[in-house]
Write a structure and sequence with these properties.
This protein is of the alpha+beta class. It has one domain: Hotdog Thioesterase (Thiol Ester Dehydrase, Chain A, Roll), CATH 3.10.129.10. The chain is built from 3 helices and 6 strands, in the order E-H-H-E-E-E-E-E-H. Strands 1, 2, 3, 4, 5 and 6 form a 6-stranded antiparallel sheet that branches. Strand 3 and strand 4 form a beta hairpin. The protein is elongated and about 45 Å long.
């Protein structure tokens, strides 16, 4: 059963690859972060405006399992769904190579919210994310 609530299509750029000709592992974090930021925008939130209001969602922990490498020019889909676990929002993010739908990366990204510099629950995120939450 597909639980994904958001997906973003991207393409590997030459400079993201290492000497082996595959995407350097660190670049996958950029792909995942860009997907989360675009998801926020699609939900009506601006990362920059949130910061100006003293609300900063931050990554507390990230886990990534690399399955299939991407190469220069590969197109891929970055998909996500999320759950709320206590004070954390946990993003389950997977990347798939477009040509054959092979899993490239499976990841879990735990985020917390700082409000005016203090760890806090966010009523704003609770209300905005309510329609997207996986309640399994």
């Amino acid at each position: 059963m597909e639980k994904y609530i958001y997906q973003l299509e991207m393409k590997v750029r030459d400079y993201e690859c290492d000497l082996q000709g595959i995407v350097n592992n660190a670049n996958y974090q950029h792909y995942l972060e860009h997907t989360r930021h675009e998801f926020l925008t699609s939900a009506g939130l601006s990362f920059a405006e949130l910061h100006q209001q003293g609300v900063d969602p931050v990554v507390a922990r990230i886990s990534m399992a690399f399955k299939t490498p991407l190469k220069s020019g590969d197109e891929f889909l970055s998909k996500l769904y999320l759950r709320k676990e206590g004070i954390k929002y946990v993003f389950y993010q997977d990347i798939f190579r477009k040509t054959d739908n092979k899993v490239v990366v499976k990841s879990t990204v735990e985020t917390v919210c700082l409000v005016n510099g203090r760890l806090s629950d966010s009523q704003l995120f609770d209300s905005v994310f309510a329609p997207y939450l996986d309640h399994e």
